[in-house]
């Protein structure tokens, strides 16, 4: 290793100007069949031209130690030798020589040895330039392309953050450019029958990196896809059969890029660019699907500029309908459904928007029903956003309307023995009112088919869903009661949830609601269930019962139910809080004359919780709390509370409440204390102020003490503290006057009795 060859440019000048001093190798016709197996390079036709470069490659491959300069010279000589061989046509035996010295493995080893924390040498760039030229030399890379690509990606993609790398590191941009050229060349230099396969492998590797949690890795992968797509879109000469071959990865890739381009991350612009050029590549392949020509004239008006294209998702979808195959469109649908699992809010919004547009053309986008149903299953396992679940509900409704037979068949296919997600899908189908009769007719036909009677073709999950459907179709008291009680014993709450959905459907008939009132204790017991979905569905069942049993029946139910609803006012789930308060209001308004006196006693206990929930941050809960408190004030005859309730002033309500109910101050205090630890700050603050007002009344403090205590305990501004103190002082003056009047009355009464 002491003697090194000259630089490639100097060596070229020396070798072109004079013959080599060393002995010339044997002529090509003298080389025997055994000679290519030798490790010596002297038998190569190229040896006479590039002797020193080939000797250096052979010596480097044998050496146990290589410094940075040796690595650089090794890679430069590979590039030099390969380019010279391609220019002169002296390729004979070169790939065998490279294989004998394990050239590809050596390049891979150099890439793997590079530190991933910094980029301080051109080794990565030279290695990828070497791989680029090697792809043109016979079959040197045969069977080793994927491992080389993995080594290149691993050595470059996990470098430090992009921030500042382009400005501070002179090797960064040139290394990425070398990778782009390498990827393009590996595709274009592949044998014609394997162009699609090579492109598929490269895109698969880059697609895996798009989903990385590292945003810098995402960014580099999307940029590489964009640059490769641009090269593909500008390439005009393809093998004859290339246009007819399908690239399976295109649908998945387009779907991921489509969602990325509507995100708020730093990959947005790069994803839009990659999506644009990838679509141009697809359109240039002239892969029009066999739709009527008038369809193209009507829909295919492609924006010609990049900005117009990125800002027009409708045009994108219409263009993709024309040029993508059904399987590719299905992959895009699945990618959009999968994007709902993303934590990015913008990703959720983009996916929902795409689904809305795609559902307008179900014949193009929803043809593969089994795959879409599986995608919905997987999405439901990882998402809980109400907006996403609603979009999936609409998607199921469209499938039920357009493809009822395929949807029923997909939902009845065998799943895991106790598949919670499959039960959730059945639950959604049963709970939707907009599912067309076609789906139910198809399901009824399959339920009564000979295959269903066998029962061995379906999993326990499907059999349970079928049982719920049968009970809902022809409900009897015994069957519904058995179904509800058996489902409570199941370890998975999804079984009970599905049973409650079926019960809700059965109760839509007023006659059935009156008949099934005997289930009321079981439903009330479910209000304490640990699963919030079960609690919410139990509330809905009670609401349906109250609606259909008539006012007299609802009044009798109300007296028993009001006490059970109060703990749900503080439930962690916003929907449960809202629905429980709504049902409380409904029951209070349902009271008839002979139950009013008992209703008043129960309703008073809800006054303080309703007052505090009026200040919730959830507008829906605050609004229904005001309405419920107004109903309670009306049944109790508290006319003076109606005006502050309507004006939404909780402190005015509290003041008048304390003035009116002097003997219940301690009860109100006891109810308000737990709210001092409530998660929402607005409710905590209202509870704190009410507690101060009530305690001041009990202690009967003077004006200065009131102001000092409020100022010390309040974290608000001085003006607000003084306002609160003034309110308390005004209330206390009224209370003192009431006490004096009561004392005077007692004295007068005692005097009158003595005189008598």
Biggest sheet details: none
> Cα-atom Rg, whole angstroms?
39 Å
**Fraction in beta strands:** under 5%
What would the principal axes of the Cα set say about the shape? elongated
What integer is the average pLDDT? 77
Total helices: the number is 42
- What is the number of beta strands? 0
Are there runs of 5+ residues with pLDDT below 50, and where? 1-38, 287-303, 700-721, 751-756
Helix coverage percent of residues? Answer: 55-70%
Q: Could you characterize the architecture of this molecule?
A:
This protein is mostly helical. Among the domains are: 1-101, no CATH class; 108-189, no CATH class. The longest helix has 38 residues, at 718-755. The chain starts with 7 loop residues before the first helix and ends with a helix. Residues 1-38, 287-303, 700-721 and 751-756 have low confidence and may be disordered.
Task: Record the SSE blueprint.
Layout: H1 8-17, H2 51-62, H3 68-88, H4 94-100, H5 103-113, H6 123-134, H7 145-157, H8 165-168, H9 172-188, H10 195-210, H11 215-234, H12 249-260, H13 268-284, H14 293-299, H15 306-310, H16 313-323, H17 326-339, H18 345-358, H19 362-365, H20 369-382, H21 386-402, H22 404-412, H23 420-431, H24 437-447, H25 450-454, H26 460-473, H27 477-489, H28 493-506, H29 510-515, H30 520-526, H31 532-548, H32 550-565, H33 574-589, H34 593-604, H35 607-613, H36 619-636, H37 642-646, H38 650-660, H39 665-672, H40 681-699, H41 703-713, H42 718-755
Helix pairs in contact: 2-3, 3-6, 5-6, 5-7, 6-7, 6-9, 9-10, 9-11, 10-11, 10-12, 11-13, 12-13, 12-17, 17-18, 17-20, 18-21, 20-21, 20-23, 21-22, 22-24, 23-26, 23-28, 26-28, 27-28, 28-31, 30-31, 31-32, 31-33, 32-33, 32-34, 33-36, 35-36, 38-40, 38-42, 39-40, 40-42, 41-42
